Amino acid sequence: MSSGVRYNGALMSGGIARRLYHRWSLRLFLSELLAKRWMEPAIPFVLMLALIAYFGAVTPNYATWGNARQLGREFAEMGFVVIAMALVVISGGIDLSVGSVFAFANLTALGLFQIGQLPVLPVIAGTLAAGAAVGAVNGVLVGYFKTRPFLTTLVTLIILRAVVDLLSQHYSVQLAMGSNTSALWDFLGGGALLGIPSNLLVLGIVGGVGHVLLSRSRPGWHLTAIGSSRKAARHAGIAVESTLCLTYVASGMLAAAGGLFYAARLSSTGSDTGVGWEVNALTAAVLGGVSLSGGRGTVARAVIGAVIVFVLVNGLVRMGFPGALTSTALGAVLLFAVGVDVKWAKNRVKAIQKIYLNPTVVELPPAPSTARDSGTPFAENDRLRDSEEIGLDQVEGPEDVILDRQDRLYCGTRDGLILRFSGPRFEQREVFARIGGRPLGMAFDRDENLLVCVGGMGLYGVTPQGKVYKATDETNRSWFKLNDDSRLRLADDLDIAPDGKIYFSEATIRYEMHSWHLDGMEGRANGRLICYDPATRRTRTVIKDIVFPNGVCVAHDGQSLLFASTWLCSIFRYWIDGPKKGKIETLIDNLPGYTDNINRASDGCYWLALVGIRSPAFDLAMRNPGFRLRMVKQIPPDEWILPGINNGCVLKFNEKGEVLESLWDPGGRKHATLTSMREHKGWLYLGGLENNRIGRIRLPDADPDWNGFDDYWRKGKA
């Protein structure tokens, strides 16, 4: 990087401490930390470690390998039941029958093995099938008959508990006198692999698979969506009834798995087997961060809660506390967990919003004069006032415009359309593609596919026949960022190098399309420049930590790339080929407005749109982060101090970064918030983020035969 380049922050006066304070903000770290999904169970995780450490310190022989193996073997059986409960709670229901299913599975396994004298594999299959059958009854009633989960599973609990008691009494002698033996049965009950108890190993495998299915698969997403809102899930086309039914089936099988291992370990049954386990399981699930209202939670969180409950109960028993006191403590924990769950779910987003915006110091030199009599290239004029209007009131926010070889005009709209205008005066309007999102920057590749940056979606393409396809929606993730920056949030503008690689800007990784203006209030280096190679279909981040990178343009010689930094009012050059490859230079610094799209001109120069004009008041606000923070928090958005976006302005500059001329529409009578312009066959076409038209003006000194597509792809360029 060249000396003096500041694409990730303006030169600032003041002490080093002030700069570091605003660049490395503790509020910024905390806001991004709280926004992480894995932070939701952070408190339960710390509590789990604290309990283990406490009982390890006060209980003799607690922190030994032998004790850990025994505790792990006992915990695994409870772990299956907790995961069973968690799945149902995430779906928006509850399964009070998990303890009874556990006891029923224990009895079934012992009956099949000791009384039926069956081999172990059929015993396993029969036990899991028995649990699945009970879960299917619950699932059909809740999913298809729409009964209330609480009452339905409560009835199942009562009936199944009565069945277990009756069968236990009737077959107690046969079970006690059973003599069937099997090495596999003994391994299930007391075996280990690499020192890990067999049931704990199976629990780990089931938990890992469950976590992936719940968080990374379509069925898991459907389950979470149903828990969040059944009505919305049904409108989205999700099979709510069958998904709920299968969830209860899975719950029954998981609880039965716990009962199977319990039977193999103890080879006994009784009237108290599994009693109260539904309360323990519900306590564990909620304590781990599974929301009682549904739609939020993971298998890992449920396991954390299970460890807390298991360690607490086991530790209190070992310390000699009576069962009544243990139950009271468990009830208090459940009450506390429910209270925290409700409060945190209600206020977490508000808490993040209060600290998420973190303005930093952006200190720019005084802006060059734009007065009409200033004699500078920036002097205000009326050259855009007489522009022709195309598609008046037929377009909404044509942020970028482009023309093809057949002289047809394209633009994106805020409602996700790509429009095409044709005819001698562009009087014919048609929908070229329905691309979704917010179409922003556009460029044609060598095969005349239209590549489009879509805010909120990524980089997409449209074939000449109007078929939409995805190029990329993610890039490589930064290793040391809390914020997951692999997903593309605000792909902004793009251009294509001679070798076919597509370079595009992502304006911010902290804000979405609907809140991009908050990035301006923050002023941080939240953006990046990204490269997508269609030949390898690989996407990589080229430059990180740029202050709102916007317009992107490959230079005429194809060896460098120009990109705009909006909030720094500057243009930078990044070398993609030649002896300077990989270097960054400042091309233009301290412009009078906020830079947007850049495009080529026919005479070897470049056009640049200014989306807003600087003002002394806004420059002062940018130098004072505390003022901006109070402004955003205390007054409505329509009263914020903002740049002058009611003045349309286009600049022309050369390869040396010298601004040659400017074209203005003072007051924005026709073209406020200009964000783009394209030269084509002697005309300059104008697009704007908030405009209801496309403009064009005649360029008397321009080449009447020049067009952008041929300049890129039809002049012998590599």
Could you characterize what this model shows?
The protein is of the alpha+beta class. It folds into two domains: 40-353, ABC transporter involved in vitamin B12 uptake, BtuC (Orthogonal Bundle); 388-713, TolB, C-terminal domain (Neuraminidase). The strands form seven sheets. A four-stranded antiparallel beta sheet has the order 3-26-25-24, with no helix packed on it. β5 and β6 (417-422) form a beta hairpin. α13 (277-287) runs parallel beside α15 (323-356). The longest helix is centred in the middle third of the chain and has 34 residues, at 323-356. The protein starts with 15 loop residues before the first helix and ends in a 5-residue tail after the last helix.
In short:
The protein is about 40% helix and about 20% strand. The protein is α+β, with helices and mostly antiparallel strands and about 725 residues long.
Layout of helices and strands:
Elements: H1 16-23, H2 26-35, H3 42-58, H4 65-90, H5 98-115, H6 120-144, H7 149-176, H8 183-190, E1 192-193, E2 196-197, H9 198-216, H10 218-228, H11 230-235, H12 240-266, H13 277-287, H14 299-318, H15 323-356, E3 388-390, E4 401-403, E5 409-412, E6 417-422, E7 428-434, E8 438-444, E9 450-455, E10 458-462, E11 468-472, E12 491-496, E13 502-506, H16 517-522, E14 527-533, E15 538-546, E16 549-554, E17 560-565, E18 570-575, E19 584-588, E20 593-600, E21 606-613, H17 616-622, H18 625-634, E22 648-653, E23 659-665, E24 674-680, E25 683-688, E26 694-698, H19 708-713
Antiparallel strand pairs: 1-2, 3-26, 4-5, 5-6, 6-7, 8-9, 9-10, 10-11, 12-13, 13-14, 14-15, 16-17, 17-18, 18-19, 20-21, 21-22, 22-23, 24-25, 25-26
Helix pairs in contact: 2-15, 3-14, 4-9, 4-12, 4-13, 4-14, 5-6, 5-7, 5-12, 6-7, 6-12, 8-12, 9-10, 10-12, 13-14, 13-15, 14-15
